[in-house]
Every structure is written in C-alpha cells, then in structure tokens.
Amino acid sequence: MFLDYFALGMLVFVCLVIFYGIIVIHDIPYDIAKERNHPHQDAIHVAGWVSLFTLHVLWPFLWIWATLWREDRGWGFHKLQEETHDIHVRVDELTQQVAMLKTEIAKLSQNQAPEASETAQEEEQK
C-alpha cells in the first residue's frame, strides 16, 4: 500500500518537473533577450510560448534571434557598413588613378605620333 502511494507521488513529481522544465527551457531565449536589452524581447517571449504548441520547431530560431542582438553593437552591421564604405573610397581612388594614367598615356602617344611620322617621312625620302 505504501509503495503504491510512493509510486503515485513519484509519478506526479516527475510530471511536474518535466512540465516546469520545459517551460524553463523555452524561456531561455527570452532570458537572453532580456539580459541583452533586445528590442524584440516581447516577441521572443510570445514566440517561445507558441513554440510549445508547434512541437519546439521555432525554439532554435528564437535562440539565434535572441543572441544576434548585443547592446554595444546592435545587430552587428556597423562594422560591415564601415568596411563597405572603405572599399568604395578605395575604388574611387583607384578609378581616379586609372583616369590619370589614361590621360598620361594619351599625351605620350600624341608626342610619339609626330616623331613616328617624321621618321616614316625620312625613310620614304631615302
């Protein structure tokens, strides 16, 4: 008789631990978002509860979503924008250098063209 009640108590205890364990695990992305002052923490919290009803399909994506934001750098695109700006500045510099080289080549070819025509005329006269 005692073992029946003990087994029933253990069953209820294990069910409660599993139930609350699932809830705690599904709140991990929300806790991460809350620590990082994520701008979408409410949406992450609601999506965590929705994930309970979708057989945990959304949960890994919520984890990723919560960890992408950091208060010191936001989504992390500032460095990418700086690098892109630096690349554009470098491309503009190279474009200007190519334009200068083209003008110098054009000047040199104009200076050599009269000399070439003079040497051709001298060879014809001989």
UniProtKB/TrEMBL annotation:
The keyword Membrane applies. Keywords: Membrane, Transmembrane, Transmembrane helix. It holds the Pfam family DUF3302. InterPro entries: UCP028770. This is DUF3302 domain-containing protein. The chain crosses the membrane at residues 6-25, 46-66.
